[in-house]
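Worked example (supplementary).
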Amino acid sequence: MKRRVLFLLLPLSVFASSFNPQMQGYIDDLKVEAKGNNPDFIDFSVQRGEQIFTTSHIGKRGERISCTSCHSLNLRNNGKNIHTNKVLEPLSPSKNTKRLVKVKNVKKWLRRNFNDVYTKEGTALQKGDVLYYINSK
Ligand code: HEC
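After joint prediction of all chains, the assembly is encoded as:
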């Protein structure tokens, strides 16, 4: 069953910006999970990802915060960690080739950063959407 779902989803990924094979494997896993949560799921969306990335929420520390608070609105620019004041290199993979290449890294930071902003770990749908958005920048 799982294999069949993957097979059906495969042609859709042709339309997405390309990820390296390791990252594409992670995206495909997220798709299976998103489809499991909602049978109507078709694909992740850059537009929904933009909403996730740019809207602000009362975060873990009780402050109003968004992904852009640390990563800046323009993903091609440096950001700054508002908690430590450290400079963050651009999140845009076209500007910074070290971005969205290591699944382990991406998983770790998505988990932490979603907790910071949304006070919970993102769903498969939210993670996939925001990765499509970041990858489009
Ligand atoms: C409090 C500051 C802060 C906020 C808010 C924040 N991030 Fe981050 N983010 C970081 C830090 C620190 C790192 C790790 C250092 C680095 O990679 O520059 C990081 C790394 C990442 C990475 C790893 C990318 C890679 O391949 O190296 C992704 C993806 C990411 N953040 C997405 C998000 C998303 C999505 C949100 C909103 C839900 C968000 N971040 C909000 C601080 C933040």
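Two points are worth noting when inspecting this output. The two ends are 34 Å apart (CA to CA). The mean pLDDT is 92.
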